[in-house]
Amino acid sequence: MTQRPLTTIGFDADDTLWQNEQFYRLTERQFIELLADYAESENISQGLLEAEKRNLHHYGFGIKGFTLSMIETAIEITKGEVPTTVIAQILDIGRDLLAHPVETLPNVRQTLEALTGSYLLVLITKGDLFDQERKLAQSGLGDLFDAIEIVSDKNASTYRRIFSKVGDGPERAMMVGNSLKSDIVPALAAGSYGVFVPHELTWAFEHVAEPTEAPRFRKIEHLGELRGVIDGLG
């Protein structure tokens, strides 16, 4: 009896299942306005991005690390003279970011409902545990997944471990997401299929070239096209 080529499908969360980056961009604009008297907007944005990159090792991905990076950037931009009132406002906009309602993307629920029961569905997301659990609960999508994995980072070993634990190994698994760097390239390296679903807003840190030569790489415009890709695997 021939084995099915695919038994397990992993889904990224932020900007794959629900909106996320747009709220960070809004918060960054507010942050730039707070420091407008001290530097040009481009310099503030660049300083914030550099701080985020430096701090990933310390704080990981998520809103708390982003808020700390904003404070660090404010100190650097003002050469240590940032007013305490500005620090308080940064903390306020960081808390506001944690309170944004969840807005699921088009075709998400229909796609998950069509696949559940036929495949093992796994949510694989990185970020702050508390915040990701909040967003999953508010999305109403939790019951459609067979497993939830909130990880500190995503690399090939992450996918090998998860797909071996939950499913039949990475070779019979697929990862679906909007980040080439975190969702697609490492999943392909683990031996899985990687389905890239571009989002109009993607954090600059996640930008890498599309692995178009990889035989298991696929690209779709939205999640509504995922079933067609799966059916095409045979």
Automatic annotation (TrEMBL):
PANTHER family per record: HAD FAMILY HYDROLASE, HYDROLASE, HALOACID DELAHOGENASE-RELATED
Top-rank taxon, per record: Bacteria
Entries under InterPro entries matching the protein: HAD-like_sf, HAD_sf, PGP-like_dom2, S-2-haloacid_dehalogenase
GO molecular function, one term: hydrolase activity
Name of this chain's protein: Putative hydrolase of the HAD superfamily
Sorted UniProt keywords: Hydrolase
Pfam families xrefs: Hydrolase
